[in-house]
Specification:
Elements (H helix, E strand, L loop, with lengths): L1 E2 L6 E2 L13 H39 L7 H19 L4 H22 L6 H26 L3 H27 L7 H26 L3 H4 L3
Antiparallel strand pairs: 1-2
Length: 220
């Protein structure tokens, strides 16, 4: 017996298709097989990862009096799995998913700062950098939703936003290391990528005037 995923009717395998909506039974079986395969590999990767982490922890405990270097890969792998779990398993709205991924990354950086020896860098550099990235990323998404830009204009905007983020990173880094503001490499990088944005904007206008599609314009 098979159950039609569209209307919920159960029918015999020999019928070949749902008697109500006439959905092909072979397609139903293919979907079941694909879902089973995805779930199987997800669990397999999870088991392999847990075994690998357990081996790392045991080696660290054997060769040192307590947990030391194994904490960093352990936390990093857990962060990767949490990110994949949020993306693949949990069906969230895009803005909630972005917020959850951002919070997971912030927590990871805070934990790494705790275990990595040396001068603390989370509050002085990492957290402000993550806040800036979150603001710029969401600002870009809002602009995309409100303006309905073409692919070329979106790419141009992304290039400009990336240049702004580079400048903000150098400002934060200079303030953290030297407690002074002295822009250098970020301005050079921004000036170098700015002509690319202007070219993309020019190209978008030229394509609109000619009435040609992007793929035809580049002979795709």
């Amino acid at each position: 017996m098979q159950t039609c995923p569209k209307c919920g009717i159960r029918f015999e395998d020999k019928d070949g298709k749902c008697p109500l909506c006439e959905k092909d039974g072979s397609e139903i079986e293919l979907r079941k097989t694909a879902a089973f395969t995805r779930e199987f590999y997800w669990r397999l990767y999870w088991i392999i990862t847990m075994v690998a982490l357990l081996i790392i922890l045991v080696i660290d405990l054997v060769y040192s009096p307590g947990l030391s270097w194994s904490i960093i890969p352990f936390i990093s792998v857990l962060y990767i799995w949490l990110s994949l779990f949020l993306i693949i398993k949990i069906k969230l709205r895009s803005f909630i998913l972005i917020l959850m991924e951002w919070l997971a990354t912030v927590i990871l950086l805070a934990i790494l700062d705790t275990f990595i020896p040396g001068r603390p860098w989370f509050m002085g550099f990492a957290f402000p950098a993550m806040v800036t990235l979150y603001i710029l990323f969401n600002l870009t998404l809002i602009i995309f939703k409100l303006t309905h830009l073409t692919i070329l204009l979106r790419t141009a905007l992304n290039v400009i936003i990336a240049g702004i983020y580079l400048i903000s990173l150098e400002l934060l880094l200079d303030n953290y290391k030297h407690e002074i503001i002295a822009l250098s490499w970020s301005l050079i990088a921004f000036v170098c990528i700015l002509p690319l944005s202007f070219f993309l904007i020019y190209l978008d206008k030229k394509i609109k005037r000619s009435g040609a599609e992007l793929k035809k314009y580049f002979h795709f």
